[in-house]
Amino acid sequence: MGNSIRDQAAIAGIGQTEFSKGLGRSEFDMAVEAIGAACADAGISPRDIDGVVRYDMENVDEEQLISVVGPDLRYQASTGWGGGGAVSVLVHAALAVAMNMASHVLVFRSRARGKNSTFGKDPKLGGRYWERTPDRLPELSQWHVPQGLVSAFQEMAMITRRHMIDYGTTERQFAEVAVSTRRHAERNPNAVMRQPMTIEDHLASRMIAEPLRLFDCNIETDGAVAMIVTSTERARDLRQPPALIHAGAMNAGSHHIRLSTLLARDRNDDSAARTGHQLWESSGLKPSDMDAFFTYDFFTSFVIMALEQYGFCKPGEGGPFVEDQGLYFEGGRLPTNTNGGQLSEAFIHGVNNSLEAVRQIRGTSTSQVPDCELVLTVAANSDPTGGVILRRA
Fold first, then answer.
1. Residue 322 in contact with residue 199, Cβ under 8 Å?
2. What is the DSSP letter of 35?
3. Cβ 357 vs Cβ 11: under 8 Å
4. Is residue 229 within 8 Å of residue 245, measured between CB atoms?
5. Rounded to whole angstroms, how far apart are CA atoms 366 and 360?
6. How does DSSP classify residue 268?
7. Of the candidates 86, 81, 75, which has an alpha carbon nearest to the alpha carbon of residue 108?
8. Structural class in CATH, domain 9-116+218-392
9. What is the pLDDT of residues 120-147, one digit of tens each?
């Protein structure tokens, strides 16, 4: 099966703000800075942007952006499911370009997610959403929140424990993931968490939701990131070497909030596993062809699961795969999240990992994989999700 978007679109510009545990800025203000930086990186004017793809959870919408981007947006779309949309936005942008629905498509994410960055009563308005859970709960929440499944931490702990029971995955293997991302972050001046970490440091950190410890969990940060997607032909004439979107796929599926449904499925039927199958089939490539991997590392255990779901190892072999610096950029089995990811660089809903994927293709990462030509970047594997393969032109 071919892929109709193959190499027709490319990421031509990337930009970001500073990342911090508390910037004290509005999400709109941060978005504008990141968008301007991405345009400058590509060598275009913000007024050249005629398409926008965003999360449906993004508080900065198209109406606000009209004061910043082109006055005649001719394409706009959004994709949902929280972390699952982190890469689906790129699939939508590539489709828009391939179908000539837009010439320069903006993809961005702006988040005030520091511990004290709340700017409204709605759970989506910054800070810790679970601290603003209403007294009267709607829909499915009324059944699981009173039982203790209040936030992603408790939900992911249940899924993590199931993987440990099924396959013997250990806390020490989770620690290997945390240490590898921190080692990458130490080399990245933009990372929030750059203090060295050892396996012992991880295992001594306090428990958040058993079996997940503090250093198993993503950090809470403010910041924004943006990318410019355009046609491959146009990208060749712009400022930076293009990162071609070689293949893309999206799949619906179970969600971590609906644990009974998620855990009832065969794991090979998860949306992440099906996305992987489609990417390999449509591209003619295989996992061993990838030079680096960028995955939604909101919890260490889900990196191990993603390695299995995307075919880098068999089910149950993800734990041993990460041992002995298996994910490290230099000498590892598969360089993974070389920016430090959401565990150590910043938690910008995973989109910051795709910026690092572009840097690897360009050869400008602070933890550069030698001769990096092909990378896989994917979104959360606990949600309906998406992924793309980027390649060097």
1. no
2. H
3. no
4. yes
5. 9
6. G
7. 86
8. alpha beta
9. 777 777 777 766 777 777 777 777 777 7
